[in-house]
């Protein structure tokens, strides 16, 4: 009904219905063993893909034809056709928490937060090349632009580790702050979200030296560059805040308070930001041009998110669309727990994820 009314309105305005996008938004519900698929034009959940245990992060394959989803507790990778939301295959693999391809496409590095290991794979074949045992809770990762070094945050050890991908050995480990989480390479420096504090750390990649800190709010998690490269968006899960940083100066220039623990982000073709709200079983859509925010219910403890551009609605799957309902807010997961559990509505820091 909503789609028909929208098409009628466009017709009255003299606009073609094809102008309306129907991007698919994939949301990993780490507390619900599922993946929500949202259609951007209607804001409705049109698929709910079951998984075995606990999904956290996802990336596209090197050719862009599939999404790779890591189910860390089930020890498997799930491959999905992003245009149809169909699961194409599954592969067994040890504890895939965070995963990224190197810029040259040769390596796939996977961190294992629970098993304290960093695995280096040949990307095209996913053949294991090396397994490094590292200090407490390896979390997020980033590469140098030349693909020679990968950097891994160590949440339980207050550290950041640099690993040589040719020799497959650590180069250095440095202390960067309490519970370091997301890390990105930005214009010759590393930016690290310090989740146990209120700032992003600016780190020299040559030796791990801390150069400055940028206040963004308590529970600073990670940083996402805008598609045009002019802005960096930092999420803060404890203060429930998104901060826009100038990409050139790294100075804060805007801020949005969004209750529910903003976590991961993805951008749609219109420049809107889709983000997971970790503690309230919802995602948010932020238009940074206007500041308008809306939220959509998904599964419990949503984590990774990905927007797949699409112009036509997803064909019917033969059943009625899945109707999501809001869940209670979630307390942060504790070390060693498989998944968050429902708690009273309190937004607070997740110490290990």
From TrEMBL:
Residues 324-335 have a biased composition (Low complexity). Gene3D superfamilies: YVTN repeat-like/Quinoprotein amine dehydrogenase. Residues 310-353 are annotated as: Disordered. It comes from the Bacteria. Keywords: Signal. Residues 21-307 form the YNCE-like beta-propeller domain. Residues 1-21 form the signal peptide. Pfam families: YNCE. PANTHER family: DIHYDRO-HEME D1 DEHYDROGENASE (PTHR47197:SF3), PROTEIN NIRF (PTHR47197). This is PQQ-binding-like beta-propeller repeat protein. The lineage of its organism: Bacteria, Pseudomonadati, Pseudomonadota, Alphaproteobacteria, Acetobacterales.
